Amino acid sequence: MKYQRPKGTNDIIPGESEKWQQIEETARKVFQKYRYQEIRTPIFENFEVFSRTSGETSDIVTKEMYDFYDKGERHITLRPEGTAGVVRAYVENKLYGPEIPRPFKTYYMGPMFRYERPQSGRLRQFHQIGVEAFGVDSPALDVEVIAMAMNLLNDLGIKQVKLTLNTLGDQATRQAYHQALVDYLTPYAAELSKDSQTRLKKNPLRVLDSKDPHDQEIVAAAPQIVDYLTPAAQEHFAAVQQLLTDLKLPFELDATMVRGLDYYNHTIFEIMSNSTAFAGKWTTVCAGGRYNGLVEQLGGPEVPGIGFGLGVERLLLILAAEKYQQWQAAPLDVYVVGIGAETNSAALKLVQAIRQAGFTADRDYLQRKPKSQFKTASRLKAKYTLIIGESELASQTAKLKQMATGTEKTVSLTDVFQNFAKIWQQFE
């Protein structure tokens, strides 16, 4: 039998995993500047955590979730997105307590799972980096979150992006718009796709998110939510736009954008790229928004929230298309060349001493000839080679060679064992 990875998944092998690590490290540095701390939640949750928060009519719940009953007959779901699990953890661990500063800022990284048709940058197991901030309903926090997302993409080397913005208003806005949308769509009910016919009855706003071409033609002339904003919602959205302008962050308004999850309200945004990775078509690489009310849905107090998520696979596609050259391979400081079987023990002790001194080191394990070992050191881009043969072993010395210049120096084995850092400094 030929064993293969499941459809819609990838192996991240050495040589590629370093790229992932660099993206993650860049994200951690950006988030730390904004005072966000990491949270790690389970890969699977109770089904209701996502069905209640994402919306029963959303594609995620109706078509894409990996859900099953475990041996205890509990209905379990592999997480399809990060926010709901973080909110559940926020409520369960009472991270809204009076002793905890507001906003409570956190970030996450890890795999998500959706059963959908695999395609470039969209897999069944995919990886997200995201942030969430709880406890503040200020437009300034909306803009800080957006600015942080733009900052991260810039630090990752992704320059050609655009920010699109919309608002879903407050509850009163949604109620007024709900009725206007029903009044508009009802005459077209028989023409809508089956999914949209169901959504028209349960959640008409979801019809705006339909991918069906005819549905899109119908909703093109639908009323827009911005025409139904309450004064408070108008004020919030106007403040967001002004603050983005103050930060000199250009944006475009898109009144048709609703996002794919039911928990959003007020500010929503997408950051898009027209990279050649997407054939020049504007494609979302980062998206998020405000979700006041979500904490209450999962049993917590009335606490506002906002966040974003971005897909690592899509980031890598863009960076590959733009021939990003700043990937940093793990450096090799010293390659120990052992000549002769009798140097095996000494070579082992040398690489161990160098590592314990805080440097990276490797050696030959195949008893190859010196020429082959030097070729390996060169291929691994070792900065130095440390050579020990029979004569060096007899004199308790080794030869430290700088690969770039060929400069060579005899060093005492005792000095290597006791203080290799001092030898390094003298050679440098």
Automatic annotation (TrEMBL):
Residues 20-331 form the Aminoacyl-transfer RNA synthetases class-II family profile domain. Its EC number is 6.1.1.21. SUPFAM superfamilies: Class II aaRS ABD-related, Class II aaRS and biotin synthetases. One of its GO terms (molecular function) is ATP binding. The keyword ATP-binding applies. Pfam families: HGTP_anticodon, tRNA-synt_His. Transmembrane segments: none annotated. CDD domains: HisRS-like_core (cd00773), HisRS_anticodon (cd00859). Homodimer. Belongs to the class-II aminoacyl-tRNA synthetase family. This is Histidine--tRNA ligase.
